[in-house]
Design goal:
CATH class of the largest domain: Alpha Beta
Number of helices: 9
Structural class: alpha+beta
Largest sheet: 7 strands, mixed
Shape: globular
Order of helices and strands: EEEEHEHHHEEEHHHHEEHE
Bound molecules: adenosine-5'-triphosphate
Number of strands: 11
Number of domains: 2
Distance between the termini: 20 Å
CATH architecture of the largest domain: 2-Layer Sandwich
């Protein structure tokens, strides 16, 4: 079932994805990379509304609507068409996306939107597609889709298709900060040119935010150097976050340029986010917490 209903409109959350760590182990012959990552979700993201309609339509509003395609190239539209084809569905749907997440940001916004649309349309069209077929369809749309569709914190391996549910994580306060420059994932991987990292075991279970930050210390984001070479302000974001009172750990998410910092408490996180916005008016910065 959906996550909230209003006069036939059902709302699905499309939360920001955060890679608490991201190790790039190798490049495969098909050009994709083998990774290992702990993916968690923030209590902040886009919202996707779905309602019954004769044809398939898509509208995009919200702070980042201007930089998202509104035509068939939008990943939400592509996801809807793929699902309709798999189901032989001829009914349409009116899909409305509220784009709160920056684009090409390392937060998997497009993947989150597409996953929310797949959940919404599966409900609307009463899909009987087996779970594994829906996951396979999702993976064809993007490597981050399977974990976004699963919707819970997970250890991710392979190119993003091998998921293991992570033990419940603390709802740690975090700040997300982005220097206001889009950075396409493909560029960051292309610029990596063989600088791979070593594999580590999955993060052990942690009991609170302090243990989460200290346990994460030996883990890495292997795309950081590549991203900084392409967008030097990523380094400024990282040092700004690390210097904030109450910051326990600052790291880049995904292929960047968005970085996150874990904080001791929510007021410290809120103060850091407002300081970031005041000191760097071109940045996007918000305080939120990890989704439990
Ligand atoms: P990742 O964390 O997987 O690297 P990202 O946050 O860097 O993802 P997205 O915001 O998902 O990247 O956008 C990547 C590209 O997809 C952009 O160039 C954008 O134009 C395109 N795109 C298509 N549909 C959407 C959508 N609904 N939301 C965001 N971007 C979209």
């Amino acid at each position: 079932m959906g996550e909230g209903a209003r006069a036939g409109v059902v709302e699905y959350q499309a939360p920001a994805k955060i890679n608490l760590y991201l190790h790039v182990l190798d490049r495969r012959d098909d050009g994709y990379h083998d990774i290992e990552s702990l993916v968690v979700f923030a209590a902040f993201g886009d919202v996707v509304e779905v309602r019954a309609a004769r044809s398939l339509t898509l509208s995009v509003t919200g702070p980042f609507a201007d930089v998202v395609p509104k035509d068939e190239s939008n990943i939400v539209h592509r996801a809807a068409c793929r699902l309709a084809a798999a189901l032989g569905e001829t009914r349409g749907a009116a899909i409305a996306v509220t784009k709160n997440l920056p684009v090409a940001a390392g937060l998997g916004g497009g993947s989150a939107d597409a996953a929310a649309a797949l959940r919404g349309l599966s409900d609307l069209w009463q899909s009987d597609l087996p779970r594994n077929e829906l996951q396979a369809l999702a993976l064809e749309l993007g490597a981050d889709l399977p974990v976004c569709l699963a919707g819970h914190a997970a250890f991710v391996r392979g190119v993003g298709e091998r998921l293991r549910v992570a033990a419940e994580l603390p709802a740690a306060p975090i700040v997300l900060a982005n220097p206001g420059v889009p950075l396409p994932t493909a560029q960051v991987f292309a610029n990596l040119s063989g600088r791979f990292g070593a594999s580590l075991s999955d993060l052990p279970a942690v009991r609170d935010g302090a243990a989460l930050a200290s346990s994460l210390a030996p883990y890495r984001n292997d795309l950081t150097t590549s991203a900084i070479e392409l967008v030097p302000s990523v380094a400024t974001v990282l040092s700004f976050l690390a210097d904030q009172p109450g910051a326990r750990l600052a790291r880049m998410s995904g292929s960047g340029p968005t970085c996150f910092a874990l904080f001791t408490d929510a007021p410290a996180a809120r103060r850091a986010a407002s300081r970031a916005r005041a000191a760097y008016p071109g940045w996007w910065a918000i305080a939120t917490h990890l989704a439990p």
